[in-house]
Every structure is written in structure tokens, then in C-alpha cells.
Write a sequence for this structure.
């Protein structure tokens, strides 16, 4: 009989295929010894493995062709591979205790682990995870000789991978080798790997705790990401049912692909712009170019999970990739927006974690206090946007003073570039994110000082309704259709129309089909969303009459109870 | 052999980025260099060991340098500590 | 912070009901809001699933619902697993010591309670 397991879905899709179990979490705690005569041979085996691991890391970095974020992650692991005391201690154990290299490594890892347990500093403590990953990779290398990397074997083709945890590098390898999906017993929906799997459209379910103990190699599985379940060894009825859904989905996808080729105009002939949101420069490879540009490139990932800060050259090469692929279409780069729910890495942490990070030093406030970090980023953006359509977006604005101060710093950056004789774009658009009610309410005045505005509905809803986006206790109260929020969105759009500047909605609302008609009715002409959402949203826009919708909006704005308002929105 | 007590002055203490700087500075010299905090000590060339010292802002670190280029090595390390590992104070 | 996690028990016929009754008489009271679903051979899984969804929505006061079922891979467990409610955790292997352990912690969060359920269940298994 079939067994149904639960997990957290990360990326969409139904996958039907056979399982392949991949063990990544193998630190062997069983003692094993060598003979005295094998001592020097064993030490050589260990140092060779260390050298090979180093080589492998360097090779992987090259394979994904300049994936700067992953390279930085690996550099951290490389620094642990090259650690003096790690190497010395293990060689000592082999020599003096006659342990095998595997056992020596495991023992050394245990010692390190217990030392880390006493550490209070959260950021230092988290480095243990990196050390563990390095140790696991090292042990795998030792135990399998020179067998290749787990996910580079062709035997994962058309298989669903079952494992404990997965690194971004693994996701890329799985996608490259035509794996069908990933199920992990641990992990998180907001990890780097999760985001990558979404972009690569690789179905993934995390936190399926019993998956490794229940699923056996070659078991037939159905991954149903919509209901966040895994069906192990489905019966014929279940198989038939899901195969039907799969083929229906494929037909819809094909139809939607046709939609992509059409121009985005409403029934009443209004041109609407659909742009893409981007998290990692590397995602741009998978963009089908069916968008009118990049409405939001979140640059935070360049700064996270590493020990240092990305310099101008590194950022330049990342941004350039995006401009290259978008060939002349507008690209909106958002300056560093850390804080609130994004994990703060120590390289950009400023002292103790604020009690209220959402209300603390984040966005432009952080940038104005860390001027060098801001200027370095701006310089890279200006250079990358040379001879292209560059839009610079500054987050978390609450006052005109911040805009003026930011402009001052950008001017300083331009002067520095001139002095260094670097070519840069001096004809860029400067825009601000509307995320805070204060900003939305000043939209009239502020619109005269910027070239465009971008409404970050995620945070705007958060701050307007005083709801923490990631707090499970209140997340059900998060309602982007609250009249207060709609009023603010409408106000901003109106102010921008008056000043004849462009306004975009780039939050999650833009990519959710239940809100498309609502946003059109509020007067929105530019949407920016996750690339996967584009076909469906475009389809709705093509079938909408903007003028008719704007007439129906008034009733919705005056409807203060959720139930009726939802009904009105559904009937748009 | 020379020893000196230095104070950790930067906001984040001896975290990964600062530790990496200590290692790369130490690697420029030939002397043995050890960092001591309380009853824990760390080879200045081992990033893991330095991290395990868990030295936050305000900690006293004793640096022990022993070798031919000990004077230069100590000077470089002092400089590094004094300017907060290039992070500003 | 005091939590009010709800409990839903889904088992083969009335195993769950009997275990709950016994636990309540041992404990003296039922320190949680508990609902029980029996799954019999003649039941349509979909009907039971719908009922389960109704119960879970009723039981969830904001702190989530702990679902206890007897054996993984059987119809009651599959029904539990297929319910798509955001704040719920499913633990299989219901025995008396599991539910008694859970009863001891009426104010814990859903995650903590799931752990207590597993610990309690395992602790009850030994050779005498």
C-alpha cells in the first residue's frame, strides 16, 4: 500500500519517478585502526585526499562559470581545508594513536564540535556547519577513492534524489544531470538551495523528516508540491490520477508559452510592462527573455554567507552578466537592503542584533551610515550599466533628506570614478522603494525628486498593518487587500502619474494572479515578479479591460470587511 | 620569544573575517605565533582555533611570537589589532 | 509563553478513542482540546480526510495542531499526512505512554510537543 509523507514545498511541479538515496551526512563514529607499518601510507592517503578536495572545490567553482556567490561559499570551506591545526592534529592521531584517517578525522571533528558548543557568538557558532560540510566531503573522498562527486554521476538522470541536506552546488549539479526532483529530511524553504531550485524549476520538498527512513532506493515516488506531500509506492489509481494532472499541467504550460510571445496589452489596448525579479546574477541564465526588463535585482546575496565584502570588481562582473543577457532592456539594481527577515551575515552586521530589526538600521539607513559599502556598490552599478539602461533603486526611504543624502553619495562615487578614469553610465534613472507608509504618504512631494518608484508591497503591508511577515502567529492576518494598503498603493500610482514617472509593484502581490485585476484597476502599468509567474499573469492581463476594472475599484476600497472584499475582488 | 597583551577593539570581535586576516598576516612570517585567551590557546595559522577562542570586543589576547622574524611579526599583528582588523572601530 | 496546541488523533477503528479514554482516567483530566477520528474499513478515505480538515481548523487556536496516528503507511496515517494545514505536525506510533507524556506538557509549543510525543512513545518501549 502507498505511504504518504509530508514536507514543506519549495518549488512547484509534480514529479513522478524512482528514488535514489544519497547519503551526505556520514561522519563515521566507529573506531578503526591501522598497523604501525601502514603509518606513512595512511598519512599520504589523508594529505592526498585533502589536496584532492581542494582541487574539487576549485573545479566546481569553474564549472558553474563564475557563480560568484557559490565561489565565496566555497572559499570559506577552502580556508577550513587549509587549516593548519586541523591537518596537524589528524596526522598526529594517525601517527601516535594508529587511527585510520577516517577515524582520525571523525575524532578531530568531534573535538572541534565540542569546542564550538561553548561559543556564545551565534555567527562563530554557525561556522561549525561549514566545517561539518568540509569534513563530510573529505570523508566521502577518502572512502570512495577517486570516485566522482555524488551528483555528477549520470545515474541520477530521471531520478528523485532523497538526502539529508543539499547545497546550492548540488542543486546545480542535479539540474545539470537531469534529476527529476529533490526531497530532503532537513533544510529550509528560504535557503540558498531552495531559491536556486525555484529558479531552475526543480521540484523540491524539504523537512520531510521520515523520508530517509521510509523511502528505499528505486521506490516509485510522486512528489505533489501543491499539497506538500510525497506518495511512496503509489497504487495504480493514484498513479493514473497524478499522471493526468501532470499532462494537464504540461498542456497549460505550452499554452502559456504561446501567451509569452504576444505583446502585453489589455483588452482596451493599454500597454502593460511585465518585468522580472532576480535574486542571484546566475538566475539570469534561465530567464527566457520574455520580460520587459528586470524590475528588481536584489543584491543581498552578493553579501551573504561569506567572511568578506564583495569588492567593486566582483560586483561589476555580477551586474554585467545581467545587462548582457537583457540587451538594452531596463535593469533595476537595488542597493543593499539588509535587516528585517534576511539573515544578517557577520560581514555586514553592525554590533548586536537590534531588538526590532524591522524598525532598525536597514535599507538606505544602513547605507548612509556605511558610506563606503554604499559607494562601492554604486560604482559597480554605474560601471556595469555603461551603454545600457540602468535604474538604481534605493530601499526603505522615509524622507526627502534620505534621497538628497543618497544622491550626494552617488555624486561622490561618480567623481571617484571620473578620477579613476573608469567609464560609467551618467544617464541612469534613480528610484526609491515605497515600503513604509511615511513614504507612500509623501509620494506627491517625493515624486519630483526621483525618476521612478517601486512599491515593495511585502514590506508596505508589514509596516502598514504592523504584522511581522515571518511570524507564524500573525502571518494569517497579512492581508494585502486591506483598504489602507490599497489606498496607499493607489495614492503612489496617482502621484507618479501626475509627475509622469514610472511606478512598479515588485512585491509578491505582483506575481499572484488573484491580485492582478485589482492592481490593474488601481492604475498599475508595470508589474515585476518572479519569472515563473509571468506567463499566468500575462494571460490574465491580456484578458482584462483596465478601464472597466478601475471603475469597479471604488467599491472595493470602501469595503472594510474581509469576506465581502474578497468576494468583490474575486468577481473582478 | 616576545609576548604582548593586545585588546580586541572592533565591534564584532575575532569573528571569521578578522580571524582570516590574522591567519593571512601570520602566514607572511616564519615565527611560531600563538594567541592566548584565558585558558584557551590558538595557533595563529589555524582559523578554526582562532574562532574557537571566541574573543569578543574588549577581550584581552596575549600574543606569543617566537622566531627569527618575531619583531616584524609582532609589529604587523599589533597594527592589525589596533586598527580593528581593517574594519574600523 | 503559554501555548494552546490542539490534538487530533486518527487511528484504525477506535484504538485512538480507547487510548484517550484510558489516558484521561489515568491523568484525571484532559489537559488539551482533543478530537478523535476512527477509520474503519468501510470509510471513504476522502470523507475522513474532509472531516479531519474540519476538526483541525476547529482545533487550531493559533498555536497549531498535533496529529497522532497509529502506524505510518496505513490509511489513517496517509489521511493525516495528506491534510494540508499550515501549522500541524504528525507523529505516528501512538501508544499510551506517548499520549501520557504529551499530557504532561499542556503549555508547550507545537514543535516541542511533537518532540515530547516521540520521546514518550519511545520511552514506553522496553523489555520487562
Amino acid at each position: 500500500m502507498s505511504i504518504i509523507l509530508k514536507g514543506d514545498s519549495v518549488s512547484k511541479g509534480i514529479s513522478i519517478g524512482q528514488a535514489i538515496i544519497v547519503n551526505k551526512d556520514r561522519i563515521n563514529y566507529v573506531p578503526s585502526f591501522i598497523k604501525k607499518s601502514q603509518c606513512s601510507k595512511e598519512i599520504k592517503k589523508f594529505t592526498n585526499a585533502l589536496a584532492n578536495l581542494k582541487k574539487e572545490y576549485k573545479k566546481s567553482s569553474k564549472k558553474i562559470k563564475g557563480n560568484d556567490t557559490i565561489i565565496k561559499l566555497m572559499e570559506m570551506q577552502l580556508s577550513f581545508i587549509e587549516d593548519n591545526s586541523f591537518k596537524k592534529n589528524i596526522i598526529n592521531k594517525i601517527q601516535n594513536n594508529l587511527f585510520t584517517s577516517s577515524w582520525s578525522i571523525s575524532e578531530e571533528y568531534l573535538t572541534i564540535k565540542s569546542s564550538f558548543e561553548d561559543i556564545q557568538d551565534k555567527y562563530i557558532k554557525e561556522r561549525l556547519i561549514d566545517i561539518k560540510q568540509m569534513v563530510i566531503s573529505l570523508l566521502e573522498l577518502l572512502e570512495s577513492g577517486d570516485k566522482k562527486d555524488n551528483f555528477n554521476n549520470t545515474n541520477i538522470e530521471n531520478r528523485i534524489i532523497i538526502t539529508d541536506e543539499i547545497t546550492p552546488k548540488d542543486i546545480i549539479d542535479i539540474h545539470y544531470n537531469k534529476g527529476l526532483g529533490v526531497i530532503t529530511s532537513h533544510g529550509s524553504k528560504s535557503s540558498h538551495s531552495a531559491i536556486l531550485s525555484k529558479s531552475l524549476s526543480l521540484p523540491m520538498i524539504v523537512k520531510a523528516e521520515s523520508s530517509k527512513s521510509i523511502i528505499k532506493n528505486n521506490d516509485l515516488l510522486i512528489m505533489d508540491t501543491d499539497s506538500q506531500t510525497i506518495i511512496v509506492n503509489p497504487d495504480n489509481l493514484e498513479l493514473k490520477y497524478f499522471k493526468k494532472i501532470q499532462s494537464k499541467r504540461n498542456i497549460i504550460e505550452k499554452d502559456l508559452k504561446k501567451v509569452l510571445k504576444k505583446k502585453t496589452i489589455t483588452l482596451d489596448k493599454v500597454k502593460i510592462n511585465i518585468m522580472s525579479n532576480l535574486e542571484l546574477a546566475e538566475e539570469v541564465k534561465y530567464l527566457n527573455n520574455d520580460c520587459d526588463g528586470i524590475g528588481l535585482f536584489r543584491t543581498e546575496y552578493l553579501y551573504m554567507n561569506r567572511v568578506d565584502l564583495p569588492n567593486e570588481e566582483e560586483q561589476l562582473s555580477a551586474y554585467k552578466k545581467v545587462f548582457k543577457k537583457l540587451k538594452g532592456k531596463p535593469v533595476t539594481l537595488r542597493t543593499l537592503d539588509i535587516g528585517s527577515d534576511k539573515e544578517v551575515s557577520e560581514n555586514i552586521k553592525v554590533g548586536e542584533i537590534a531588538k526590532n530589526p524591522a524598525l532598525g538600521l536597514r535599507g538606505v539607513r544602513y547605507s548612509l551610515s556605511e558610506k563606503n559599502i554604499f559607494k562601492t556598490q554604486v560604482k559597480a552599478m554605474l560601471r556595469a550599466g555603461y551603454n545600457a539602461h540602468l535604474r538604481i533603486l534605493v530601499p526603505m526611504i522615509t524622507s526627502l533628506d534620505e534621497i538628497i543624502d543618497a544622491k550626494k553619495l552617488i555624486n561622490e562615487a561618480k567623481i571617484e570614478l571620473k578620477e579613476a578614469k573608469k567609464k560609467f553610465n551618467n544617464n541612469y534613472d534613480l528610484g526609491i522603494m515605497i515600503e513604509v507608509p511615511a513614504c507612500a504618504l509623501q509620494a506627491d512631494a517625493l515624486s519630483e525628486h526621483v525618476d521612478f518608484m517601486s512599491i515593495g508591497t511585502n514590506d508596505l503591508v508589514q509596516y502598514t498593518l504592523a504584522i511581522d511577515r515571518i511570524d507564524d502567529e500573525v502571518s494569517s492576518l497579512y492581508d494585502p487587500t486591506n483598504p489602507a494598503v490599497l489606498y496607499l498603493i493607489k495614492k503612489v500610482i496617482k502621484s507618479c502619474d501626475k509627475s509622469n514617472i514610472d511606478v512598479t509593484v515588485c512585491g509578491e502581490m505582483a506575481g499572484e494572479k488573484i491580485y492582478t485585476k485589482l492592481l490593474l484597476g488601481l492604475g498599475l502599468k508595470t508589474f515585476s515578479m518572479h519569472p515563473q509567474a509571468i506567463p499566468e499573469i500575462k494571460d490574465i492581463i491580456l484578458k482584462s479591460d483596465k478601464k472597466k476594472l478601475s471603475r469597479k475599484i471604488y467599491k472595493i476600497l470602501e469595503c472594510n470587511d474581509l469576506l465581502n472584499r474578497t468576494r468583490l475582488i474575486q468577481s473582478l | 620569544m616576545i609576548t604582548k597583551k593586545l585588546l580586541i577593539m572592533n565591534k564584532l570581535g575575532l569573528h571569521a573575517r578578522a580571524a582570516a586576516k590574522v591567519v593571512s598576516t601570520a602566514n607572511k612570517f616564519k615565527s611560531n605565533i600563538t594567541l592566548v585567551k584565558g585558558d584557551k590557546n590558538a595557533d595563529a595559522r589555524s582559523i578554526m582555533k582562532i574562532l574557537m577562542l571566541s574573543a569578543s570586543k574588549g577581550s584581552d589576547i596575549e600574543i606569543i611570537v617566537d622566531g627569527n622574524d618575531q619583531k616584524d611579526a609582532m609589529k604587523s599583528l599589533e597594527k592589525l589589532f589596533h586598527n580593528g582588523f581593517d574594519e574600523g572601530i | 509563553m503559554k501555548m494552546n496546541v490542539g490534538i487530533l488523533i486518527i487511528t484504525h477503528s477506535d484504538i485512538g478513542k480507547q487510548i484517550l479514554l484510558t489516558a484521561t482516567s489515568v491523568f484525571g483530566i484532559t489537559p488539551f482540546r482533543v478530537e478523535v477520528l476512527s477509520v474503519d474499513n468501510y470509510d471513504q478515505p476522502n470523507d475522513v480526510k474532509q472531516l479531519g480538515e474540519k476538526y483541525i481548523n476547529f482545533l487550531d487556536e493559533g498555536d497549531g495542531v498535533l496529529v497522532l496516528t497509529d502506524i505510518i503507511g496505513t490509511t489513517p496515517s496517509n489521511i493525516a499526512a495528506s491534510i494540508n494545514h499550515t501549522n500541524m505536525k504528525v507523529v505516528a506510533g501512538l501508544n499510551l505512554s506517548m499520549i501520557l507524556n504529551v499530557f504532561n506538557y499542556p503549555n508547550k509549543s507545537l514543535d516541542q510537543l511533537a518532540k515530547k510525543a516521540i520521546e514518550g512513545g519511545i520511552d514506553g518501549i522496553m523489555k520487562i
In short: Chain C has a mean pLDDT of 92.
